[in-house]
Design brief:
heterodimer; A: alpha+beta; 5-stranded mixed barrel; B: alpha+beta; 10-stranded mixed β-sheet; 6-stranded antiparallel β-sheet
């Protein structure tokens, strides 16, 4: 709620359950929530006015104008999650786990988590919006730990998922594989890794070719988060940091070259992926945001309040994990655009380099101006051919250097589910879609020993 | 708000209902009510802003029910939960879900048994339970005032950012089971976690304050500390890549513990074969200067609890004693699964934390209460600096992750604030923020500790639910890399 003479926010959230199963009790809960949010907003507005004397940049909240919508968005699925028997989900979990264990005695631990369901949200505002939006989500998580006796374990966590029904786990997914086949593939890859050498680190940049799965995490951390307007406006300074794309209104990267002209990146909630939706949680129709066009930084994902401050049009990027939480600016389906070079050709042109395959864990500098991201697998490239496999390696670089050094963009675009993006206080875990094609650039290798 | 009495009635009556159902061998019912209040702060001197961005809260209550079914010789277990009800109908619905979900779990042994008398009683603050909306909002503005006043007094009025939050947690839970557990817990926690910047000077400072009682809570102090710390680090210098002796301050030490060491000291990581401490119980894993334990009964500490979410009284669990690995954090399930294999673990740390609250929607996982770090030889701050002689004091790090998996122990992190160059045992200059990345291995850090400070402070970090009562520690030979060359 926005209230008070110098308008300010107040918020109240509560989960609903059995006790709200009729209109009378829903009304009671809503009345409580409205009264609480109002009391907080008014108290906040009064304090803001009092502090204006020593803090002149304080202002009342202004929201950028949007089209006020009434709409119903239905969930999409071939196989309705409500028709999937729980015993069938349990059976898939247990049989997949058992099959993974039976591949080798070196498989020390397996963990399977499967979910399928439909969520429904109703958004109404005093401006007249009334949006009834449903969404299907089906997801499978695989964790496998493999270890040779006396060796260092190798761990793999990966997801299959989509905003569709049970058909996702039968093969309608980015991997075009049934979930149990995907789980076995990741198990065998992990076992292959425990037989491999540790990647030596380098002190100087080398040629690296990064695959679409790895680039999903790269675009997430280095493009997606820094292009969220609330970070640019410093609201995340105490938490996940600021943005390397915006220091202040005079000193920022808007309209400037931050990457090779081969690189384009955008965020598109209309495309199929974990970041798909039609309206955000302020009722704004969701729009595509062109973040980087041919190497030039173009703009931010935003919400109504931040769009007003930045003098931009709202693009519908405000989402909360659950309805009882405050919406934040969230990336949608944020990706590197497809290029035109076959990935095989990109590798074949490399005399000496490394092929960085599938993302693992990121560590990012405060404004995301530098990164270290580990890979599940790293292969050596010698004279255009993939040779040795290494484990526990990755790459590190200053973000702008990495982007400016990109000299090839593949034509093998893929988008992957990223279900665990943390932001805010209290922490909200959001589903987003990330991906891109194969890229070639330069970065230092990270590993367990120096080359 | 739901009273403790209502929660207790719900679980006690629920037990009577469920144990009369067909094929029930045992049952455990957990009911909770929680309110999580956050006042988010955002002041930017050069961008229009709200100061207090929003006071907000989420309230969650419900029932979690775990049932053990026995048909002939076959044992099956199931869990079900319902939200926003304490009614008999709610218990029946949770039971139906548990029955529908039941499955044979070969690793399940039995429910927790009653184990002694809790130490803590009446340690919450009734004034926090009844806190008004006006007071909540006021706490946020008091935090901002602390930082603004410090900046104003030092004549900084441009390029200022003040962020962070005031968080208040109110928790009530009750648990009963057919194994004789019948208890409740009630706690209150207040934290102020603040960050201040003078952005044109590229400096950032942190400040925090914690309490279980509102009368002792001081958000102004956190604000003041954050601004003071930012101002102190103006004019920082870069360092070149290399190996340095360092002091990890309280925040970085807490970050290392929350993201790497505590997860590695949990039986869940042992169960998954994903800890660098696997097979090392009773062996030396750290400098003999280091002792670490979990202690849930410290009055006034914000991680303290009367009982776990399994109804077990909290207490002290030794983890590392003078460099030797002596224990792991445990819950009932894993203590019984792994307990007979190689040691005995007291399951004091089975908590149902989810989204920062004691949630009825999840089964107990392993979480610490208060993690205490100390040494047999504690030194004062001056001696600590002299131990590294030349090196770096690291005051705040960020995005600390076990980059190659927990078991490998490799981690990386960037130094983002509150840090200094040390020469001849004295702090001489600030370190330029965001220009150094730590690339190291946690086993090297633990083995290379050369001193531990006397003074400690309850420390929390963003994204972590854990509380570390943290000293500062000196470590030799830490690999630091000079990064982001474009930052001038």
């Amino acid at each position: 709620m926005l209230a008070g003479e110098m308008s300010a926010w107040g918020f109240y959230g509560q989960t609903l359950g059995e006790d709200e199963s009729n209109a009378k009790s829903i009304y009671k809960t809503l009345t409580l929530g409205i009264n609480k949010a109002y009391a907080r907003a008014v108290a906040n507005a009064n304090k803001k006015a009092e502090f204006k004397l020593i803090a002149p940049s304080l202002t009342g909240v202004n929201l950028a104008k949007i089209d006020i919508c009434s709409d119903t968005v239905h969930a999409t699925f071939d196989e309705d999650p409500r028709d999937v028997l729980l015993k069938n989900i349990l059976a898939l979990c247990t049989s997949t786990s058992r099959d993974m264990r039976s591949v080798s005695k070196d498989v020390r631990y397996t963990y399977i988590d499967i979910q399928t369901g439909i969520s429904r949200e109703l958004f109404c505002s005093t401006e007249g919006a009334c949006i009834d939006q449903s969404c299907t989500l089906t997801q499978g998580l695989v964790t496998v730990v493999a270890q040779k006796a006396g060796g260092i374990p190798e761990v793999c966590n990966d997801y299959v998922g989509g905003l569709r029904g049970w058909e996702v786990l039968k093969g309608k997914n980015v991997y075009k594989q049934p979930f149990d086949v995907f789980a076995l593939l990741r198990t065998r890859e992990t076992l292959e890794l425990i037989e491999s050498e540790f990647l030596p680190a380098t002190s100087e940049p080398v040629v690296v070719v990064t695959n679409p799965h790895f680039n999903a995490l790269l675009v997430h951390e280095i493009v997606g988060h820094p292009a969220e307007a609330d970070r640019a406006l410093k609201l995340e300074t105490a938490y996940a940091g600021r943005s390397w794309l915006f220091r202040d209104f005079q000193d920022n990267e808007l309209g400037k070259q931050i990457a090779s002209s081969l690189l384009t990146a955008y965020s598109d909630p209309a495309m199929d992926g974990y970041g798909h939706y039609k309206y955000d949680m302020e009722g704004t129709p969701a729009k595509r945001v062109n973040i980087i066009e041919n190497g030039i930084f173009k703009g931010f994902m935003n919400g109504r309040e931040y769009a007003e401050v930045l003098n931009q049009s709202p693009n519908g990027s405000m989402r909360a994990t659950e309805s009882e939480l405050v919406p934040l600016v969230r990336m949608t389906n944020t990706v590197f655009a497809n290029g035109n070079k076959p990935p095989g050709e990109i590798i074949a042109e490399v005399k000496e380099g490394y092929y960085i395959v599938n993302h693992r864990t990121p560590s990012i500098s405060e404004s995301r101006e530098n990164f270290r991201i580990s890979a599940q697998k790293v292969y050596q490239i010698e004279n255009g051919k993939i040779t040795g496999l290494y484990r526990q390696g990755g790459i590190t670089a200053d973000s702008k250097d990495f982007f400016m050094n990109i000299d090839a963009v593949g034509n093998d675009f893929e988008i992957f589910p990223v279900p665990n993006c943390g932001k805010g206080q209290p922490m909200q875990i959001m589903r987003v879609g990330n991906g891109g094609p194969t890229l070639r650039s330069k970065a230092r290798l990270t590993g367990r020993k120096e080359l | 708000m739901i009273s403790v009495e209502d929660l207790r009635t719900c679980v006690r009556n629920g037990i009577d209902f469920v144990k009369s159902q067909k094929d029930i061998a045992d049952v455990e019912i957990f009911a909770s009510w929680n309110e999580h209040i956050t006042v988010r702060l955002n002041y930017t001197s050069d961008i229009l802003c709200n100061g207090v961005q929003e006071p907000k809260s989420t309230q969650v209550n419900g029932i979690g029910l775990f049932a053990v079914f026995k048909t002939g010789k076959e044992i099956k277990v199931g869990f079900g939960s319902v939200s926003n009800t304490m009614s008999p109908k709610g218990v029946a619905e949770a039971f139906q879900k548990a029955k529908r979900n039941k499955i044979h779990d070969p690793d399940f042994k039995s429910l927790p048994e009653s184990a002694g008398k809790p130490v803590l009683e009446n340690y919450h603050d009734p004034a926090v339970m009844d806190i008004s909306d006006e007071t909540i909002v006021d706490l946020g503005w008091r935090g901002l005032k602390g930082a603004l006043t410090e900046f104003n007094q030092k004549y900084f009025d441009k390029s200022i950012i003040i962020g962070g939050d005031i968080t208040i947690r109110k928790e009530r839970m009750a648990i009963a089971s057919t194994k004789g557990i019948d208890d409740f817990d009630e706690s209150t926690i207040l934290t102020a976690n603040m960050t201040a910047m003078v952005e044109k000077e590229k400096v950032k400072g942190a400040g925090w304050n914690t309490s279980t009682h509102v009368s002792q809570f001081n958000p102004e102090e956190a604000g003041h500390e954050s601004a003071e710390s930012a101002i102190k680090t103006i004019g920082g210098e870069r360092i070149s890549s290399g190996t340095y002796n360092v002091i990890f301050g309280r925040q970085p030490l807490t970050d290392l513990f929350i993201n790497i060491i505590i997860p590695a000291l949990s039986l869940s990581s042992v169960n998954a074969s994903d800890t660098p401490f696997l097979g090392k119980l009773g062996k030396k894993i750290a400098s003999d200067l280091l002792t670490v334990y979990d202690d849930g009964i410290i009055k006034g500490a914000i991680g303290s609890k009367k009982i776990s979410c399994e109804g077990i009284p909290t207490g002290r669990t030794d983890l590392i004693h003078q460099g030797l690995l002596v224990g792991f954090l445990s819950n009932n399930y894993l203590s019984k699964k792994l307990g007979n294999v190689f040691a005995t673990f007291i399951p004091r740390n089975g908590f149902r934390y989810s989204k920062g609250i004691r949630s009825h929607t999840v089964q107990p996982r392993i979480c610490p209460t208060n993690i205490i770090i100390e040494s047999k030889e504690k030194v004062d701050s001056r001696t600590l600096l002299s131990k590294i002689n030349d090196g770096i004091y690291i005051g705040r790090i960020w995005y600390t992750y076990p980059i190659n998996g927990l078991a490998a122990g490799d981690f990386t992190s960037t130094i983002i604030a509150d840090s200094y160059l040390v020469k001849g045992g004295k702090i001489v200059k600030p370190l330029r923020p965001n220009t150094v990345r730590i690339n190291s291995n946690i086993m090297d850090i633990l083995h290379n500790i050369i001193a531990v400070s006397k003074d400690t402070k309850q420390t929390i970090v963003w994204g972590g639910e854990e509380v570390v009562i943290a000293p500062e520690i000196a470590v030799q030979g830490v690999k630091l890399d000079n990064i982001a060359g474009f930052i001038t």
